[in-house]
Specification:
The complex is a heterodimer of chains A (212) and B (655).
Chain A: H1 2-21, H2 25-47, H3 51-79, H4 91-111, H5 123-140, H6 144-165, H7 170-199
Chain B: H1 2-12, H2 16-19, H3 27-53, E1 57-61, E2 70-74, H4 76-99, H5 109-128, H6 132-150, H7 157-188, H8 205-219, H9 228-234, H10 237-247, H11 249-260, H12 267-289, H13 294-321, H14 325-360, H15 371-374, H16 376-389, H17 396-409, H18 425-448, H19 455-458, H20 465-483, H21 489-500, H22 515-540, H23 565-575, H24 577-580, E3 583-586, E4 599-602, H25 606-630, H26 635-654
Antiparallel strand pairs in B: 1-2, 3-4
The chains are: A mainly alpha (212), B mainly alpha (655).
């Protein structure tokens, strides 16, 4: 089973790049849903078919792979947008930045004082790369929907880390993650609805007017 | 020790029972006054016992705060600072009964009395604390109570502004003190104050600078005096007396106590203090001359007197550095005696100025005039204090300045060494004394002599007995030190021994500083003065009194023809233009038959209004610009900040 992990993590990184470079929101949401579903396999692959791993996988699949993407797709249908127009930083530059941060994450992970059993795998660099891609998405996009996707990717990155720790700290990790995620999505859901109702757009830059 | 503790507790909580009394009732203020008086008497007994036994009294209790025990110690050095405190607090609290009665000030009378008591207790604690933590606590209570005293009339914009500046200044100083005590703790290994002369001098330069900044800010040394003029002007007069007479001296106490810890003292400490003292003294009195507000003027005289004290202290430090015991003893005795003296005569000045303000209702010197005819006793008391502050015999100011002069002339015995430059202290002191005299000639001439310049000044009435008696007590104390200086010699000797960590061998009072002769000359002068006064009053009885004082023989003189505060001081203010930068508006007369013209002059504080305000305005502008850049409302940027923070933290973690 272990040999399946590296291709899986590679797929996660590729999905990061796709999300960073794509303007089509629906496709992005679907791809992030796929990323979540793939990540749901991760605890099973790394810890075997234990009850705890299965629980974690089921939770991740439900939330990351099904519920949240479905909510986002519904929201997109309601506000009737399809594409991310005029991002703050263009798609190609974002993609280049994404590549750079991924390379940085791989280099950086070598320097980290990790436990010996985590040193060789792709877990830590992938987690860092996914987190930074999420951050990039958050920073460079205008639409609230894309920003939620950024949060989701950020959480995915944290989830990869958490899989490493789930044996040591069983319940704490996933409870923390899922709670975080739910809060994030609810908050952003409210933001999306409220922004589009107030300004008839979901561009977050209108929020600039809210500063003191 | 029990006396001291009860003194601290009684004065600290003197204002508390009043909080539970009716707003209009007299009970609270009387109770506060009685408690304060009892507390002061208890403290006085404690000091008397210590001085009588020739040693010191101390208290050492275990304490849950790390770094040392709860240590209190009362030694002659602290006692020197304590004595004026008791007198000023007691007289001020009696004076306050009529000056700030609860019935006329139902809104803030209770607050004033609460913090008046609290600050007195806190000062006692500051002076006796021997644990750095306890010292800082008491220091902070003192600083905050001072803030509430200054903002007693918080409905006035001026008082709020003064209080705000004071708060900023005092906390900046306290910050330096925190650093100082942390370093002291590091050096000596405990927060308990080390004994005199026990710490090595190595690496103490930064500590000295921190102490100079923190304590100098409280004392009001020249570039750090920014809070002082506004604060003393805004507080009620008896609170100003306490703040100016006693509280600012805690800064001097801190410096004196702190420098006593070191076995060797680098020479530059003394030179720095001499330089700062000369600047404070000369510019302080020059600024005082230029003022039109009587309490602001007195506040600048505090800066001047702190300068004189710093001069004496600088000489003492130089005496330690160059191993000249005579210089050290004279400098330090002069410094400490001037601390006591300034506490007495400055309080008296504030109280008598307060009595004038109470009667007339204004602090503007140009609105007063001829007050001596309406308030003869207040005028006489003010005159006595003015003579004392100008450093003239037979009052106490002369004695301390004379000791400092003697110290300043000591280096002449060794003209070859670098110490020779310290002789320049003497001309600086002479300049300060002469200018102070000129300033008080101005105040007394404009306020008390001449004709009343406003209707309110005409209707002024003499202060009641309960205000006059406390003032008279202070004048008696001033005269006592001036006429019987030998009575204070044991106290000063003990304090000097405390400071220098030496025993015996001090010669103060002998041929070395012939205080006995000074006292004799003082008495002779007094007798001469009395004789001349009697003779003058006998011959003046026959003279008609219909003509105004400043009338120059002109029969129909009007009050407007008199010298004003600014015209009287104009010559000196112009001489010191390089340090004062006074503003002059109008006054140009053109043509043969000029119309109505106006003239006004105004002297803002050199450091606060000319330097600090522009700098802070610039800094505020810069910060606003920076905030507009950083805090621009674009969510992407905030997220970028988070990402950068995470990256920086990770990088730091790796490194």
């Amino acid at each position: 089973m272990m040999e399946l992990i590296n291709p899986l993590l590679l797929a996660v990184i590729l999905i990061n790049f796709y999300t960073l470079g794509s303007a089509r929101l629906v496709a992005c949401i679907r791809v992030v849903a796929i990323q979540g579903a793939l990540l749901a396999l991760l605890p099973l692959l790394s810890h075997g078919m234990t009850f705890h791993a299965m629980l974690l996988a089921a939770e991740a699949f439900c939330f990351k792979g099904v519920v949240i993407p479905w909510l986002l797709l519904r929201a997109i249908r309601r506000v009737r947008i399809r594409r991310e127009m005029e991002p703050i930083v263009g798609f190609v530059p974002t993609l280049i930045l994404g590549v750079l941060t991924t390379v940085g994450a791989f280099l950086f992970a070598d320097l980290l004082p990790l436990a010996p059993e985590h040193h060789d795998g792709m877990f830590v660099p992938t987690a860092l790369a996914t987190m930074f891609s999420g951050f990039l998405l958050l920073i460079t996009r205008r639409k609230a929907i894309t920003q939620i996707l950024g949060y989701l990717m950020l959480e995915n990155g944290i989830f990869i880390f958490a899989v490493l720790l789930s044996a040591a700290m069983p319940v704490m990790v996933e409870a923390g993650i899922l709670l975080d995620l739910l809060v994030g999505v609810f908050v952003m859901g409210i933001v999306v609805n409220q922004i589009s109702r107030e300004f008839s757009t979901i561009n977050t830059e209108r929020l600039t007017a809210l500063k003191e | 020790m029990i006396w001291l503790l009860s003194g601290i507790v009684l004065t600290s909580f003197a204002g508390v029972p009043g909080l539970f009394c009716n707003r209009e009732s007299l009970r609270g203020e009387r109770l506060a006054c009685i408690l304060t008086l009892t507390g002061a008497v208890c403290g006085l007994i404690a000091v008397a016992l210590v001085l009588n036994s020739g040693g010191e009294t101390y208290l050492d209790l275990p304490w849950s705060i790390p770094g040392g025990t709860l240590a209190l110690r009362l030694d002659p050095l602290a006692a020197v600072f304590m004595l004026p405190l008791f007198l000023v607090v007691a007289t001020g609290s009696v004076y306050g009964l009529r000056y700030w009665p609860q019935r006329e000030n139902p809104g803030n009378g209770r607050k004033l009395r609460l913090f008046y008591g609290l600050i007195s207790g806190a000062i006692m604690l500051v002076l006796t604390a021997r644990n750095g933590m306890l010292f800082l606590m008491a220091w902070e209570v003192m600083a905050l109570s001072g803030f509430f005293l200054i903002t007693t009339e918080e409905n006035k914009e001026e008082a709020r502004r003064a209080g705000y500046i004071y708060l900023i200044a005092t906390h900046t100083g306290t910050l330096a003190l925190f650093a100082l005590f942390a370093m002291l703790d590091h050096t000596s290994g405990s927060l308990i104050f080390p004994g005199a002369g026990t710490l090595p001098a190595a690496g103490s330069g930064l500590m000295f600078l921190l102490g100079l900044f923190g304590f100098g800010m409280k004392a009001g040394l020249m570039p750090l005096h920014i809070w002082l003029p506004g604060a003393h002007a805004a507080a009620p007069s008896h609170a100003s007396a306490l703040l100016s007479g006693v509280m600012i001296k805690t800064g001097i106490y801190g410096l004196v106590r702190f420098t006593s810890f070191f076995a060797e003292i680098p020479a530059w400490w003394g030179w720095t203090l001499l330089l700062l003292g000369a600047i404070s003294g000369i510019l302080g009195v020059a600024l005082a001359i230029a003022q039109h507000d009587i309490k602001r003027l007195l506040a600048y005289h505090s800066v001047e007197n702190i300068g004189i004290i710093a001069l004496g202290f600088g000489l003492a430090l130089l005496g330690r550095s160059y191993e000249q015991p005579a210089l050290m003893i004279l400098g330090l005795s002069g410094c400490l005696l001037h601390v006591v003296n300034h506490g007495l005569f400055k309080s008296l000045l504030f109280l008598s100025a307060g009595s004038v303000i109470h009667a007339v209702g204004t602090r503007e010197i140009d609105q007063l005039g001829g007050v001596l005819k309406r308030q003869p006793w207040t005028g006489a008391l003010f005159l006595g204090a003015a003579v004392a502050i100008s450093g003239l015999p037979p009052f106490n100011g002369f004695i301390s300045e004379w000791l400092i002069y003697l110290g300043a002339l000591q280096p002449l015995k060794h003209p070859t060494s670098a110490l020779g430059l310290a002789v320049l202290t003497a001309p600086a002191l002479a300049l300060i004394g002469a200018l102070a005299l000129a300033c008080f000639v101005k105040v007394f001439g404009i306020v008390f002599l001449g004709e009343a310049r406003s209707k309110a000044a005409v209707q002024a009435h003499e202060a009641p007995l309960s205000m006059l008696v406390p003032m008279a007590l202070l004048l008696v104390a001033c005269a006592w030190i001036g006429l019987l200086p030998t009575t204070l010699v044991p106290l000063l000797r003990g304090a000097v021994e405390n400071w220098a960590g030496i025993d015996g061998g001090t010669m103060l009072g002998g041929s070395f500083a012939p205080l006995g002769w000074v006292s004799l000359i003082g008495w002779l002068l007094l007798a001469l003065l009395a004789a001349v006064g009697l003779w003058l009053s006998r011959i003046s009885r026959k003279v008609p009194r219909a003509i105004g004082t400043w009338g120059c023989g002109f029969q129909f003189s009007a009050p407007r023809m008199q010298y004003t505060a600014s015209s009287f001081a104009d010559f000196l203010v112009r001489l010191f233009h390089f340090g004062l930068w006074s503003e002059r508006h109008g006054g140009k007369v053109t043509g043969l038959l000029p119309g109505v013209t106006r003239f006004s002059s105004h002297t803002p504080d050199t450091v606060l209004d000319r330097v600090l305000f522009p700098i802070f305005l610039g800094a505020a502008w810069l910060c606003r610009l920076l905030r507009a850049c950083i805090h621009n409302g674009v969510i992407a940027f905030y997220l970028l900040y988070i990402a950068l923070t995470v990256i920086v933290l990770l990088a730091l973690f790796i490194l």
